[in-house]
Amino acid sequence: MIYEKHANTAENQPLALIVGANGGVGSHVAKMLLQRGWRVRALTRQQAPSGAVDGMECVTGDAMNRQDVVEAAKGASLIVHAVNPPGYRNWDRQVLPMLDNSIAAAEACGARIVFPGSVYNFGPDAFPLLTEDSPQKPFTRKGALRVEMERRLKMASMRGVPVLIVRAGDFFGPDAKNNWFSQMLVRPGKPVRSVQNPAAPYAGHQWAYLPDVAETIGRLLDRSGELPAFAVYHMEGFWDFDGLQLVGAIERAAGHPVKMRRLFWPGIKLAAPFVPLFREVLEMQYLWQMPIRMSNRKLADFLGAEPRTPIDAAVSATLASLGCLEQVQQPASLHHPADAGGRV
Fold this sequence. Notes:
Helices cover about 35% and strands about 20% of the residues. The chain contains eleven helices and 15 strands.
């Protein structure tokens, strides 16, 4: 059954299927594609999901059910695989079957797969500066799963399924609530009085503003004819070189001093046996203990520049969306700066 929300059904427009459209990456990529003239279809468990993007066609189904994904992908030339188990849980039982279903659907309809990547699939031997070709030797369960996911995508590309992987730092942005920014740094729905910082002192950290991630994917797709069958690019995003720059941006957005306290990792460890989310979070602690940075040289060489929203505008828009600003003011500009270049 299909639920349409102001769906644009022009037959001459390319169709994209979003698997995981309710998540941060999926929803922002959906908006970006609609702005570029694509028809967008979302596979969702709910017939009329809350937060559905205007213009997006919604199809009820389960990403764990192959037939549902294959049916939803009929006619699509693009599948955006942006689905993850909620709250970091059940990765070992769900992420690979869901990806296999998207690959099967892409093979059936001849679609390209877009996959948002991360730093999880790299280990300390590759730190601190990561390139697209850095060795992938993770020491965590999630990292091993990420490596396997990308391996399966590469194998699919060798069978004729074009693949685009864009790896980025920790996501934040409007209408995205399942991330470190909204779950650890601030408290959604409450004015910012303090910030809980997971980073060790002077440990740099990489962040990715979701509208910039979506725009980067869009500009790469604009030149899809020039992409190899298995294309991988790193974004630099916002590099918080000492772990304090994002806190400063939050303080400027709030318009008053904000107290910073360090996340008490020993407390997370004590509670982990009883709180499933904390068990999953604890596995990622190493990402906050040392500087880990992805080089975007390959991306910049191809596009000319990486799309970047000024950090103060990005943080202001994010906090406003989370209900964390007492007096919501429109950021000076949410458009990409002129020196980032137009669509390529």
